[in-house]
Amino acid sequence: MKRLFASLIAFAMVLSLAACGGGGSSAGGGSASSGGAASGGAASSGAASSGAASSGAASTGGSSAGGSELAPRDGGTDLTFATGGETGTYYAFGNVIGNKVGDLTSTTCTAVSSGGSAANIQSLMDGDCQIAFCQSDVMAYAYNGERTFDAESAYQGFSTVAALYMEQVQIVTVNPDIKTVADLAGKKVSIGASGSGVYYNAIDILGAYDLTEEDIVPTYQDFAGSAEALQDGQIDAAFIVAGAPTTAVTSLAASKPINLVSLDDEHIDKLIASSPYYSKNVISKDTYGTDADCTTVAVGAVIIANDDVSEADVYNFLYGTFEDIPNLSHDKANELDLEFASSVTSVGYHPGAVAYFADKGITVPGK
């Protein structure tokens, strides 16, 4: 009876204090409602133009780290994150993501430069890295033993982590006479390292216009080498496949006028019919200060990880990528979108990714 009486007195005191301090409670609630996911939303136009859901990260992405409902996992380890060349988007954005993962979670994620998608698959196979960027088409080639990956070099020991953004096929030229893909015939054209993702993108697009590697004078250069060769007049055009704006192209455009070669709808439809991993994409004229928008195609930029990477590390990688979007200091952060991130179907998702997306209310196919 005494215990009941004491409880009633305590309850009455709480009611009295609440009546006196109601203003303070309201202020706290207002502060919380002013933050959250809406304040950290990605620009919907960026996601829509890249084929991601137009709702953007505002509706499905993370909020600032302080307002997130999730918590990173304990027990993180050290990851080596293979990206791409130092003048490409993979490397620049990869460093931003790696730093954020290390800042917010128990996982250390060190981004390193690499030869790009195909080289990253090899690095995963060799154990030189644990997580990597890869073009959506190249990861499918590796998993299925196609093109540069034959049956003996196929690799199925990796899983999908997330699709991050679309990377455009950019055909860059400083030659004003090159206006269409057909105009590349007989010209000196960089088509990426032999066997690389860029190389096969170039071959696909040339093929849609009934051209082959033999119909051009090919060179096999990375982004920086291609930009330098264009700058020096050593080549007429270059295929660069990366999220626009790309550092190599931005630097070139700052020194001389450039043009991006557009693809017409007829040939885009022909290309997609034979290679459905491409999608139509438009690069705004404001991206590099060109005279007109460029209509082209794009493939997905996907994060993949070896199957033996821990669930905690992959969960933490996604936490660092999506839970503090407003403070990811790179243009591609504006395209991050959970709906797009969870849209990969060619290779199953890593258990850590399955767990993260489940906590976001999204079901993805596990491997």
Overall description:
The structure is a single chain. The chain has 367 residues and is of the alpha/beta class. The chain folds into 2 domains: 40-164 and 302-359, 3-Layer(aba) Sandwich (D-Maltodextrin-Binding Protein, domain 2), CATH 3.40.190; 168-299, Periplasmic binding protein-like II (D-Maltodextrin-Binding Protein, domain 2), CATH 3.40.190.10. It is built from 14 helices and 10 strands. Strands 1, 2, 3, 4, 5, 6, 7, 8, 9 and 10 form a 10-stranded mixed β-sheet that branches. Helix 8 links the parallel strand 5 and strand 6. Helix 5 (89-104) crosses helix 12 and helix 9 packs parallel to helix 10 (247-255). The longest helix has 19 residues, at 2-20. It is globular and about 60 Å long.
Task: Pick out its properties.
single chain, 367 residues, alpha/beta, D-Maltodextrin-Binding Protein, domain 2, ten-stranded mixed β-sheet, 10 strands, globular, disordered N terminus
Low-confidence stretches: 1-60, 63-67
Structural class: alpha/beta
The overall number of domains is: 2
Q: Measured on Cα atoms, how large is the radius of gyration?
A: 24 Å
Question: What's the short story on this structure?
Answer:
The chain is of the alpha/beta class and 367 residues long. It has 14 helices and ten strands.
Question: What's the structural blueprint in terms of helices and strands?
Answer:
Elements: H1 2-20, H2 22-34, H3 44-49, H4 56-60, E1 78-82, H5 89-104, E2 108-112, H6 117-126, E3 131-135, H7 136-144, E4 158-173, E5 188-190, H8 197-208, E6 217-219, H9 223-231, E7 237-242, H10 247-255, E8 259-260, H11 265-274, E9 279-283, E10 294-306, H12 311-322, H13 338-341, H14 351-359
Parallel strand pairs: 1-2, 1-3, 5-6, 5-7
Antiparallel strand pairs: 3-10, 4-7, 4-8, 4-10, 9-10
Helix pairs in contact: 5-12, 8-11, 9-10, 12-14
